[in-house]
Each structure stands twice: as structure tokens, then as C-alpha cells.
Amino acid sequence: MTLRVLAAMSGGVDSAVAAARAAEAGHDVTGVHLALSKNPQSYRTGARGCCTVEDSRDARRAADVIGIPFYVWDMAEEFDREVVQDFVSSYAAGSTPNPCLRCNEKIKFEAVLDRAIALGFDAVCTGHHVRLVDGRLVRSVDEAKDQSYVLGVLTREQIAHAMFPLGDCTKEEVRAEAARRGLAVADKPDSHDICFIADGDTAGFLNRRLGSRPGPIKDESGEVLGTHDGAHAYTIGQRKGLNLGGAPDRRYVLSIEPVNNTVTVGPRAALRVDGISGVLPVWSGREAPAPGDGPLACRVQLRAHGEVHGCTVRATEEGVEISLDAPATGVAPGQTAVFYDGDAVLGSATISGTRAAAAAERTAAPQPG
Q: What SUPFAM superfamilies does this protein's entry cite (predicted)?
């Protein structure tokens, strides 16, 4: 069946090959590049960014080679509201957001998809490395490039209008195919870092947005070990940049209290948690469990490219409660928990709180440097 497909073209090799594959499959494909900055000069330039000032030109050249119409959509207002402002407000509240995940959720598969459907398109095609199997998101065959985690927030309806042509191949195969097709982006490096922080200095960006607000850095007993210029510049599990000077042992950020502007630090063992609370659950790969249902045994990934943990999940009136089979470290409110049945995504929830692992487990656990 021929579909009208809107191919989101970032200017990178993945989205270019995805658009080419959709066109080669016989679909009626139109390419679109998303302009996400009101002031493009404030975003990264060169290969290390995402949505950089060069990318629109690269996307247009790729569309010309493929032979499809191409447009640029101005999504700067939506991006600033849904991604940049959300990033700043989350840090101000003591949470650790993932802006790329938020962009996929609110921009590429909400604002863009809504506009695409209104214009008569049947699907949005992207270059994400993930498979669609029987209506469920499934990990890419290229484990190192798998992006199912950052798409775990998508709803079942959004997935029904999505097309991911690259999930059955490796990144090396994508680059080789791009070269065969004559796409100039074949050797373009992958994007890294946060596109709207031009110099890569997240703490500096947050300080400019939120201002300097000095406060104490304390240990678990309440002893003041040092000071900071703003609690918003820290995240759970952080070790570098604490500047504690005389502290005898390695310390990690254990908690951030934005109300009293306090950062609490301690040993790595104190980061271990075995329970997680989540809110705003989304169930795309199964029917949503209801409060009172029995525990759901599955696996959970707690950050992009992070370890996968065995767990059980129970639905509550507020969201979900996750019990880990073994403790995890560095789990921060604001991150996303994505649930899996094997390689298939079941759903996700935003982490709202954690429960510390039992003292015996914390003490017995190995503590790598």
C-alpha cells in the first residue's frame, strides 16, 4: 500500500537513508527539516551538534539526490517552550531531564505528527534505530545504536503513524548504503551533546537562565563540606566538579533540595536504590495495568545507553511503583524509566522518587572507583 509519508530530515546520514528507503519502497515521500532556533547562531555549528546551522543545507541536498520535495518547518517556538524551558524548569526543581527524549515526544511525534496528519500524511518517517514489530517498538539489531529508550514515551497512536526503516541494520551498513546512493552525508559524524547549549557548558547555561544562588554542600550527617553557586547545576550521581577540597573520600551527589538550596553528598554506596516511583505512565506495548492488578515482571532501562535491570511494576493511583531485582545507582527524578518485555518496549514512566537500598545491600556491594 502506498502511503503519504513525511520524512523528518535532520541533515544526518540516518534520516537521509530512512527517507531514501521510504521512497524506494514506493511511498509518496516529502522531506521536512525542522528549524528549532529563533537565532540559529546560538546553536552548535559543525558535526558535534544536533539541528545545527549546517544541517538544513545537508538535508536539502539529500532530498535533491533522493528526488523528493523538501520543506523547512519553523518549530522554534514549540521547541523553546517544550524542550528548552522544560529543561531549565526541571533542573530548577531538582530533576534531571533528557532533552532529546523530550524533543522526540513533544516535537517530532506530537507537534510534527499532528501537523502531518492535518495535512493529509499517513505517517512520519525518521532515522531512529528501532524496529516496529506488530505495532510495538523493538530494539534495533544494532545494540550500540538502539534508540528504543528515547522513543519509549511515545503513545500507541503515535507509533501507529510512525515509520522507522533503519531498525534492521547496523550504522556501518547505513553509511555504506548512503555512499552507494550518492548522499554527501555518508561520512558525516554523529551528533552529540545538547544542541541548544552552544559551548557545551550545561552549568553555565543554567546559571545564565536561573542566576547564581550560592548554598551549602553537606554530607549525610548535615556537616557543611563546601558551597555551590546553584543547586540547579548538579545531578544525582555527579562526582566531578564538587570542589570539596579537604573531603577525604570520593563523594557523589546524593540529593538536591531546591527549596533550601542544599546539595547533599556521600559515598557511592549511598546512591544504591531498589525502589522507584514513577508518574505519567505511557503503555504502548500492552494494555495499561490498573491499580490492584498483580505485579508485572519485566525489565527496565533507567537512562539512555544505561544498564537494563530486572524488576516488577505495580500500577498505583499516582502512577507506578518499580521494585528492582538488584539495586541500581545514579537514579534521578526527572529521568525516564522504560519497560521492556525482552527487546520490545512495554511503556514508560517519569521517575518521581526513589527508595534507598537496604543498608546490608549497600555495604556488601562492590564500590568501583
A: Adenine nucleotide alpha hydrolases-like
What domain range is 360 assigned to?
A: 270-364
Q: Report residue 51's pLDDT band, with 50, 70 and 90 as the boundaries.
A: low
pTM comes to 0.90
Per-residue pLDDT reduced to its tens digit, 20-38: 999 999 999 999 999 987 6
Say if 203 falls within a structural domain. Answer: no
Binding site per annotation, positions: 8-15, 34, 127
As annotated, the binding site for ATP includes 8-15, 34, 127
Domain CATH number, residue 35 = 3.40.50.620
Whether residue 62 is found in the same domain as residue 29: yes
CA distance 32 to 35: 10
195 catalytic? Reply is yes
**Element (H or E) spanning 250, and its range?**
none
Known catalytic membership, residue 169: no
Q: What does the pLDDT look like over 317-338, one tens digit per residue?
A: 999 999 999 999 989 999 999 9
Q: How far apart are CA 76 and CA 80, in angstroms?
A: 6
